[in-house]
Amino acid sequence: MREFKDEMREFKDGIIKFQERMKEDRKEMNKQWGNLANKMGTIVEDIIRPGIRPTLKRYFNTELKNE
């Protein structure tokens, strides 16, 4: 019975370590997703925003007021 209890304790400790590792991995993955979202946000600022004024002028014959 003692051998069985020792095996179960080892198994439980392994599960706890696995859960801790998964939490750390999930935290790192969320950080990476945040960084990616920030990069995607700059696409709008860097590419789309500069083209708004000419597009509005060309297709809608209107202009934006100064920002």
Give the domain tally: 1
Helix fraction bin: over 70%
Biggest pleated sheet: none
Class inferred from helices and paired strands? mainly alpha
Overall 3D form: rod-shaped
Number of strands: 0
Number of helices: 2
If you compute it from the alpha carbons, what radius of gyration comes out, rounded to the nearest whole angstrom?
27 Å
**String of helices and strands:** HH
Low-pLDDT stretches: none
Strand content: under 5%
Mean pLDDT level: 90
Question: First CA to last CA: what distance?
Answer: 77 Å
State the gist of this model.
The chain has 67 residues and is mainly alpha-helical. The chain has one domain (2-60). Helix content is 84%, strand content 0%.
Task: Describe the model.
The protein is mainly alpha-helical. The chain has one domain. Helices cover 84% and strands 0% of the residues. The protein is built from 2 helices and no strands. The protein has helices at 2-48, 52-60. The N and C termini lie far apart (77 Å). The model has no long low-confidence stretch (mean pLDDT 90).
Which terms summarize this structure?
67 residues, mainly alpha
Can you lay out the helices and strands and say which pair or pack?
Layout: H1 2-48, H2 52-60
